[in-house]
Amino acid sequence: MNDIPVPSYRVRPSGDGGPPWRMIAVGGGLAMALLVGAGVVWGVSRMGGSRSVPLIEPDPRPFKVRPDDPGGLRVPNQDELIFERNRGPAQSGGGQLAPEPEAPRLDALRAQVAQPAPRPAEPAPQAAVPGSQALAPQAAAPQATAPAAPEAPARPAPAPNGRIRVQLGALTSEEAAQGEWDRLARRHAELLGAFRPQVVRFEREGQATLFRLRTGGFADVAAAQAFCEQARARGMPCVVIR
């Protein structure tokens, strides 16, 4: 038996046509080295060179542009200046100086002060005419007359044998009618002081009984109507009963 050890791999013959792996590995290493070198050179050039701060400038174009045709309402002479309109011939030329201020005449003033002032002539005394009265310097003012106070209406009173009466209300009971008279007499004593109450019972079929409050003794209807006018002016109901 042969005791020589045989290795586990086989020697590949050189002429088998496979790719040259060694040359590929060497080329890849060289390419990587070139890339790293180029990166280092670029970084050094950026750090070593002069770096300027960027300057921010505004837009040089105009912010607003006036249109050629603004539009809107057309007003005559809208583009003319105020001080260039209606300039007369006197204003078109050069400026003119105003006249000099008037100076006072001192000699004329001194001569006027030096002259004595004329004395006023005294009035001649008037001869007194017998039987005539001297005129007062001022006429006496007429005294203002106070306006006459309106005459108060005469206080009404019942006439003897007067039969015309007036009605002042209609209530549901005799006590209510008498109480209404007492209330009216207290409030309008100057109108009802001379009269006496008259309570008249009034019944109608199918209706409630009423008690009419009346007073009277007027000579005629005109006197009763005058009384009712005064009563209505005071807020009292009043009807002439004929």
UniProtKB/TrEMBL annotation:
Gene Ontology MF, one: peptidoglycan binding
Taxonomy of the source species: Bacteria, Pseudomonadati, Pseudomonadota, Alphaproteobacteria, Acetobacterales
Pfam families: SPOR (PF05036)
Basic and acidic residues: bias regions: 58-71
Comp. bias (Low complexity): 124-152
Protein's name according to its UniProt entry: SPOR domain-containing protein
PROSITE patterns in UniProt: SPOR
Keywords tagged on the record: Membrane, Transmembrane, Transmembrane helix
Residue stretches making up the SPOR domain: 158-242
Domain of life: Bacteria
Residue segments, region Disordered: 53-73, 113-161
InterPro entries: SPOR-like_dom, SPOR-like_sf
Sequence intervals crossing the membrane: 20-44
